[in-house]
Automatic annotation (TrEMBL):
Protein name per UniProt: Uncharacterized protein
Organism this protein belongs to: Fusarium oxysporum (Fusarium vascular wilt)
Single Gene Ontology BP annotation: chromatin remodeling
PROSITE patterns: CHROMO_2 (PS50013)
Assembly and binders: Component of the NuA4 histone acetyltransferase complex.
C-alpha cells in the first residue's frame, strides 16, 4: 500500500480502551485474513504481537479452553474481540507507538455522508485496524481514496454483505 493523503490523515493517538471468531490452530503462520471460521473460541488473553509480511500484525492468543496458543491476524481479532484488542494496544502504549507502522489498513467502512464541497459525491468514514471506531480515530475518505486502499471493505459496506471475499 502506498502512503497517500488519506493515510496521512489517520489518527495516531493511543487507543482508548473477549472474543470468539477465529480461523485458529493453523500449524504454520500461513495467514488468510479473509477467512473467518463460523466456530467460536473463547479467548483467555492476548499475549503479544509480531510483524508478519512486513506490514501486517499478528497477535499471540491464549485460548480459554486450554488449546495451544496461536498467532492470529490482528484484523480477525479486531473484528471479533475489539475491546480486548484495543485494551491490549493501550497496555502497549498504543498501536502506532508499539509497532512503528506508518501505513495502516482499513478495517471497515462505518458510514457515508454527502460531501460539503461537492454535493454530487460522498465521503466514507473508515475505521482503521487496531484503532477504535470513535470520531477521534476514524477518517473520512472520498470514494476514490476508499476504493483505492479498501475496495473489499467498501463493497461490504455498500452491499450490506459481510465477508464478501471469505
Amino acid at each position: 500500500m502506498v502512503m497517500n493523503d488519506a493515510l496521512a490523515r489517520i489518527p495516531l493517538g493511543p487507543a482508548r480502551g473477549g472474543g470468539r471468531l477465529h480461523h485458529r490452530h493453523q500449524p504454520s503462520l500461513t495467514l488468510n485474513p479473509t477467512y473467518i471460521s463460523a466456530e467460536r473460541f473463547p479467548i483467555e488473553e492476548l499475549l503479544g504481537w509480531r510483524m508478519y509480511d512486513g506490514d501486517s500484525v499478528v497477535i499471540d492468543v491464549r485460548w480459554a479452553d486450554g488449546s495451544p496458543d496461536s498467532w492470529e491476524p490482528e484484523e480477525v481479532m479486531h473484528l471479533d474481540s475489539a475491546q480486548m484488542l484495543l485494551n491490549f494496544w493501550r497496555r502497549q502504549g498504543g498501536r502506532h507507538k508499539a509497532t512503528g507502522l506508518r501505513e495502516h489498513r482499513v478495517l471497515r467502512v462505518l458510514k457515508s455522508k454527502e460531501s460539503r464541497t461537492d454535493k454530487d459525491s460522498r465521503l466514507y468514514q473508515c475505521q482503521w485496524i487496531g484503532l477504535p471506531a470513535s470520531d477521534d480515530y476514524t477518517t473520512w475518505l472520498s470514494l476514490d481514496e476508499v476504493t483505492d486502499i479498501a475496495l473489499g471493505q467498501w463493497l461490504e459496506f455498500v452491499t450490506g454483505l459481510d465477508d464478501i471475499f471469505g
